[in-house]
Amino acid sequence: MAYKLLFVCLGNICRSPSAENIMNHLIEQAGLSDGCADPKGIHILCDSAGTSSYHIGSPPDRRMSAAAATKLGIKLRGRARQFQESDFQDFDLILAMDQENYENILTLDQTKQYHYKVRLMCEFCSRHTLKEVPDPYYGGQQGFNQVIDLLIDACEGLLTKVMSYEL
Ligand code: 4NP
To answer: Quick one: which of 76, 77, 74, 70 has its CA closest to 145?
Structure first.
């Protein structure tokens, strides 16, 4: 069974590509990547998108890439794309980085039939109490480092839940 996760922020160049790449890193560490389903048969696929069109086609922000390299030793892959309505059908779970992203996604689901798929990323944190992943774009490097710490926590919680069918 494939379980598809979509991480969503505003620009798809800072928070959501980090979440996608961190999740793929954890999946790889757990031995669940490259089509290797776990013994229960769960195969997790990750993607990311932005609610805005500002940075379509751009690679991840270099300050975000620097934080991911320093704190986790991973390279951020991917190019920005905009969230589209077909994503509601195509993904099992849509993870919004902050409340504004969450509301913007729900607004696009006019029939409300997919609201149950949309969650806030910080719901899955166990060591951090912040309710949103803060937008680091106009701040300093410390904000980008904090995004990585929060996303490691949230991605670990999310992976545990997916693997135990608690979603
Ligand atoms: P992200 O960060 O939503 O985490 O990718 C941002 C990227 C760009 C802008 C804002 C936030 N911007 O205003 O261009």
So the answer is: 70
Measured CA to CA in angstroms, residue 7 lies from 14, 62, 82, 161, 163 at distances of: 11, 19, 11, 16, 18
Question: 127 catalytic, yes or no?
Answer: no
Low-confidence ranges of the chain (pLDDT < 50): none
Pocket test of ligand 1: the residue of 7, 8, 12, 14 to mutate, having most ligand atoms within 8 Å of its CB, is 14
pTM (2 decimals)? 0.97
Asked whether the beta carbons of 93 and 6 are under 8 A apart, the reply is yes
Span from the CA of 105 to the centroid of ligand 1 (angstroms): 16
